[in-house]
Amino acid sequence: MKNNHPIDAEIQQYALLRNECNAEIINHIDHCATCKLKVEQYQLLFSGIEALDAPQFDFDLTRAVMTQLPAPKSKHEQFIPVIIFLVIAAVGCPVFYVFGKTFLQILSNLKGILSGIIFLTAIVLFTFLYIDQVRSYKNRINKLNLN
Known about the structure:
The chain is mostly helical. It is built from six helices and no strands.
C-alpha cells in the first residue's frame, strides 16, 4: 500500500473508469477511507453534470456571431493597390515628362545613388501612407454604417 494518496486526476480516473487504473491506485483507494470519500464525491459530481440539460440560448447564436465577423473582401478590393499604382504612374509620367529636364538637373547636382534612394524612399513612403489613409477612412465609414 502506498504512503502517499493518489493525485486528483488519478482519483477522477478511478471514479470514471476504474478498470483502466493502475493496480496500485485501485488497491490504495479500496483500503483508504479518505480516497474512497473523494471517489464518492467525484462520482456524485459527475452524475450531477450528466443530469444537467444542454444549455439553450433564447436568441439565434449563429446569427449573433456571424454579424460580428468581418465581411469577406470583394474581388474589386483586391485590385485597389494595383489601381493606386496605375493612378500614380498615370499622374507621375506626364509630370515627369513636363518637368523631367528640371528634375534631372536637380538630381544631377546630387550624387546619383543618394538621389535615387531618396526618390525611391519618398515614392514608397507616399504610397504606403496613402494606402493606410484609404484603409483607415474605409474602416471609419464601415463603423459608422454599422451603428
